[in-house]
Prior knowledge:
mainly alpha
Amino acid sequence: xxxxxxxVTEHLPKQYKTLDKDLGRINLLEQAAIYVSRPLVPPGVALxxxxxxxxxxxxxxxxxxxxxxxxxxxxxGAYMALNIGANDVANNxxxxxxxxxxxxxxxxxxxxxxxxxxxxxxxxDVVGTVSRGIVAPEAVSDPQVFIWAMMxxxxxxxxxxxxxxxxxxxVSTTHAVVGGVMGAGIVAAGFTAVNWATMGRIAASWxxxxxxxxxxxAGFLAFINNRIIYxxxxxxxxxxxxxxLIGIMGGAFATYMALKGLxxxxxxxxxxxxxxxxxxxxxxxxxxxxxxxxxxxxxENRNKSLKKLFALPLILSAALLSFAHGANDVANxxxxxxxxxxxxxxxxxxxxxxxxxxVMLIGALGLSVGLVLFGPKLIxxxxxxxxxxxxxxxxxxxxxxxxTVILASWLGLPVSSTHIAIGGIFGVGFFREWYHExxxxxxxxxxxxxxxxxxxxxxxxxxxxxxxxxxxxVTVPAAAALSAxxxxxxxxxxx
Length: 495
């Protein structure tokens, strides 16, 4: 109670003083209750979402002979979608937030809209029921075995991604699903049922994805350093080169969307996609040149001024990445669920199945709800805790992600969007360390300094680097082991 409040109560009757003290205690209890219950709100909303999904699944499929299994799988699919939204979307929005081109609230809103739109408008039309050939279809042809294998894979992947999100480690949701299918498949049909050649390519992507993303991001940052940042007249250099860079970004994303984001609407060959990207790059570069010239008028000749010129393309790139992510990764959330629904309705498994709209809707809404409820933690970590990002560095990361996916599609390499984006962030961070020490000759790591001080001066936080790499390495085996255990338990239940 303040001094003025104390003076007022001095002249009140005793019973009012007692009442004021009691009201003060109640007010403190209310504040404490709000403080304690606040962390429980997101899990509570998530449980309500999963409950609503269960109700909808019961209305749509409860009358089927195995309707309860579909209801349970739908709830697990919703849980998986929530976790993908919480973990994976940070890769698209983290750099823009870290560069302060977007606020956290703005990033959540844009990502939620674009993820949902991508999933519903261009989401996986058809999905392989055994996760792109990880397990031979004939090995799990028994409907009961197949249903429990898909259920175990879905739940194991969701649990692993949930754990990774809690630990603050961005992992590949695709690899988690693949590991889940592999683990259940091994228990169901033995090691020979697994397509080990495909698994070898996936293991190779653990190295290929981040290295490609990091090298391309570092290459663009080197170009920006050489042509813009370390020029005497930064603004004049920016007027020349920023339109070119924006054109490259537009062309890359046009190619990316043609190849990956619009498969459901139209099928575009690789050569055609490249021509589309080239055309967009030229036209966009010419269109934005006068805009950049107007924006640069009156800007001071310093690096901070360049943020204004890179902010809009960075926001657009984050939105496009979210759209493409929703289109491609929604199948990770609902692919096994769609396979279970197909098996229940048709009485058997199939190589490829259509995803019903209500199943797709579960995945689309789950991605957005999970992002809004649990995404901020990883967005902050990806955007600012691995290394310091500004608009130029974040732009390099976004552009590297699009170009790496295009190159991987051309080479037929299985890559992870998570690994590419995080690899790009590490790439610009390690490049900055090398550039400052080797090119600018700034001795930041003098042997005379204490070890703690030398570590603090590192541009890239080594603790995050080790945590993330470790999580990447154990995702497939951890999801596989968990799925194998879950399948062994579920297979005891008669269908």
